[in-house]
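Sample 3 of the quickstart, ligand adenosine-5'-diphosphate:
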Amino acid sequence: MIKRLMIANRGEIAVRIIRTCRELGIETVAVYSTADADALHVRLADIAVCIGPAKAAQSYLSVPALITTAVRTGCEAVHPGVGFLSENSNFAREVIKAGLLWIGPDPDVIDLLGDKVTARETALKYGLPVTPGSDGPISTKEEAIVVAKKCGYPVIIKAASGGGGKGMRIVMKDEELEENLKIASREAEANFSDGTVYIEKYLQNPRHVELQIIADGKGRVAILGERDCSVQRNHQKLIEESPSPGVTPEMREAMSKGARNLFSSLKYRGAGTIEFLVVADQFFFMEVNARIQVEHPVSEFVTGTDLIREQILVCCGECMTIDPDAVTLSGWSIEARINALSPGKVKHLEVPGGPGVRFDSFLYAGATVSPHYDSMVGKLIVHDTSRQRALNRLIRALDELKIDGVQVNIATQRKILSNAIFRSGQFGTGLYAQLEATL
Ligand code: ADP
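Result:
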């Protein structure tokens, strides 16, 4: 087993990875920007190295700084976390070239799945239904009109390299196609250095359902149930739960069959997610995230696993401790993302506790929420025997959570969790927009 690992990330995910590494007896090297000198991940790691200024492009996204740090500190592996370079095959290749283990799938597999256009083609090849749409990239108005006619309006223009809900435009009619193609492509170029876009039918109020995968790189694939991530604001997830209130055992089995086929054939290694849009009892492949995801704790709660541990073990060539044929889902787990509404310094912090409550965060009294990075400051996750009980537990825990000095979205989350439509379980990705006026 490896002895030292570098985490090419910050915030709560870096803290999360350090915790598992400590339990595995692996020393951790944290990297940080000058804005994060007092950050929790810096305090918790065995070694911490400043890699640059606050701007992410010069620190957390600087491949040379990261590789040099990993080599100089004697690391044997690099964990990319989420966001930043976590799905960057170039970074993965540099890590491997430096003689280090990459805690993720093979860079060629990242390339195949990272581009949404090639991922759609790959999914089709393995028998997964995809959202109706273009067969490849779209660059002209004429091509777009043909696809829109085939699918019917509304359609959505999406960035092939997109992520985090960026670079998407919904279009209602032919006359709007040309301008939106240009805007989406420009946005995609600015955010992902790749202006390639394609078109899908825009489904009305679908559910966002995703399967959690752990695979050993030799064809063994464990599927750890699904997550429902339909509560989204501007296509960004706010609340996630497992299981999904809209997935039947038959649908879960059908999705799992296709997913197992795909991940097994690709000899996928590590943690991954396959995302679907669900309308009634139909599901459509959307994309694969070739990394661990923010919302992984709800799957950990219902399956009783440590996904970061499994991810590290399989990527270091060890056996996974999950038996793919014996995964059972127990109870219900829900996560509420805690987002800062403004930067600032935490003056006072009270963290909820009790049975089935987990708070993954980088906050402490005195911690700084920097304007330079993602606004998510933590995740409150609960587990109980039923959805109803888990909801009550999450509201109780939210009421105990006190963060003074930085404004956060606790009140909004509480309102969504108390809402009758949300509590009924009968909702889709349009829920937030539906409720917005009351939040
Ligand atoms: P990203 O990689 O930016 O997160 P995704 O492809 O995962 O983008 O889509 C994010 C969200 O955007 C989905 O969960 C869904 O709410 C919405 N979305 C994407 N494609 C469609 C579609 N074809 N129809 C309806 N909603 C969609």
